[in-house]
Amino acid sequence: MIDDSDLLRGLDRQFLGFTSPTSPRIQAGGHPCQGIYTSPSGQRPKTAFIATHYNVDFSEHYIAPYLASRGYGFLGWNTRYRGAEDQFLLEHAVIDIGVGMRWLREQAGVETIVILGNSGGGSLMGAYQAEAISPTLGDLLSGPGLEALNTLPRADLYISLNAHQGRPEVLTDWMDASVVDEFDPVATDESLNPFNPDNGPPYTEAFIARYRAAQRARNQRITDWAKAELARLNAAGVPDRLFPLFRCWGDLRMMDGAIDPSERKTPMCYRGHPAVANRSPSIGRANNLKTWLSMWSLETSKCQGAEQLAKFDLPCLVVQGLADTGVFPSDAKKIHDNIGSADKTLNMIPGAHYFEDSLEERQAAAGLLCDWVARKR
Fold it and tell me: pTM of the predicted model, to two decimals?
């Protein structure tokens, strides 16, 4: 892990905790909205970044000191769903992000806000900006929640950094298509097993097409079951339930470097060798039924990139590290293509998902972001 302690010595870090229009402070004392604002010591930057993830704690985001040391503010922001992926609902998450945005505008004195959509947070921050431009979630809330949704502050610039296209897209791309029973982690269709050497790698075009179709079908089967199960439970007065999800480290690109070529290592994923990781928990490992429908379903989720990015009317930068083992060049190109703004740029650069392997690559990525912002603000 890169040591950035020297950078932090010249920076101020302020912990923030606030209630949300749809969530009070819990009795134990924690606030639903929390984060850390990093800035140059003794300064009040007029330009600041904000980054949030669906469930990962971004308060101490790795790139914060690299941007703050260059004169910018950085709000590593968490919604009520940090560490609680199984309970996620998009409408409340964007309201919580709005709390951080308002703090930047009204309390920190920031004039130019840059949304940083990093990793899984790319589509979440994209959904936030899209809702700020044209709200679509109002039918899910009333009162203070509806008012908050209809008054979300807009950002001025958007950066996609090693971002997945969307939550349903990345989960479906990673799904092991050979699963035949969602409640049995062992049951397998060997003709689709990506770890059966008879199937590859290398994988044939025919196998790839069949596998991708089976991944989409798996997502739809879970959606169909979730809708029916939710209706069954609600009829009995039960609001929701948890269910497990197994074997989601099965993207063929993790095993076969000839698919979507880049500088990444194969076989490799964020958890090491995909054949081993696929037996362990992944994203989406547990869900409420409503969470599946809100976050992961290809049919019902608004956490998908294309629909949200098409609404964009602000300058956008898409940056992709070529050694990333979970986001691939075609993902970055699709994000860039889906952005509705005329002012958009795509940069492919050296480095892994969090640029964790090289200080030089991390510094170069930070410099690229800052240089672009300096030209656009």
Answer: 0.96
